[in-house]
TrEMBL record:
One Pfam family from the record: Dioxygenase_C
Family statement drawn from the similarity comment of this UniProt entry: Belongs to the intradiol ring-cleavage dioxygenase family.
Domain named Intradiol ring-cleavage dioxygenases: residues: 63-91
Annotated transmembrane regions: 6-27
Protein name (database record): Catechol 1,2-dioxygenase
Keyword match Metal-binding: no
GO molecular function terms listed in the Swiss-Prot or TrEMBL record: ferric iron binding; oxidoreductase activity, acting on single donors with incorporation of molecular oxygen, incorporation of two atoms of oxygen
Lineage per the UniProt record: Eukaryota, Discoba, Heterolobosea, Tetramitia, Eutetramitia
Keywords, alphabetical: Dioxygenase, Membrane, Oxidoreductase, Transmembrane, Transmembrane helix
């Protein structure tokens, strides 16, 4: 019964995501505001790590950057609500894996660690860890991306950043694109990881 209930929640949430995606890709091109595919309210405050997954075989990502005003001055304590699909291309439904709220430091800098996001398919949108649908539903694909809602001083900006992870880039044309760089072990991580950087201007 619990698995069935979890599955129904997953399907309902995923239908909502598909509707948002349609509005974003079809209606958004006509000048309407972007929707927030995969967004979920109530993400926890995070110090650094967004991923709750204990699977260490998934590629690690360290993403960082700055938040500044239009004059280039850093904005401290800016809030970044961040979310993305996991390595399998699935948005968390029951928990807050690959989701979190972080703040910039006094220099306007932010940084977080997570897993490299996967290509989102229809199967991924309609699945959860307890409710997996057939691979035949993979005809819909959205390129790997990370979404942000950045807020500070009464201003808010939403940004969907597509990445060049080892998965497909399909669907990322004419979008904000950040190259992920494969990085050897260093002071940031004792294991090999991917790194990416993006600066926000409010």
């Amino acid at each position: 019964m619990v698995d069935l209930y979890s599955g129904l929640i997953s399907v309902a949430f995923s239908v909502y995501i598909l509707i948002c995606y349609f509005i974003d890709t079809v209606l958004g091109k006509k000048g309407r505001p972007l929707t927030m595919v995969g967004y979920k309210k109530g993400s926890p405050n995070r110090k650094h790590t967004l991923s709750d997954d204990q699977n260490t075989s998934q590629p690690k990502l360290v993403f960082s950057g700055k938040v500044t005003n239009k004059s280039g001055a850093p904005i401290k304590n800016a809030t970044l609500d961040v979310w993305h699909a996991n390595w399998d291309g699935v948005y968390s439904v029951l928990g807050y894996n690959c989701r979190g709220v972080i703040k910039t430091n006094e220099k306007g800098e932010y940084s977080f660690e997570t897993v490299v996001p996967g290509t989102v398919s229809l199967r991924g949108l309609l699945s959860s860890k307890r409710f997996i649908l057939p691979r035949m539903l993979n005809f819909y694909r959205q390129a790997p991306s990370i979404q942000f809602i950045v807020s500070a001083d009464g201003k808010t900006k939403q940004e969907q950043i597509f990445t060049n992870s080892v998965n497909s880039k399909s669907g990322a044309e004419d979008k904000t694109f950040v190259k992920l760089v494969k990085t050897k072990p260093d002071d940031i991580s004792s294991t090999e990881y991917y790194s990416g950087t993006y600066n926000f201007v409010l």
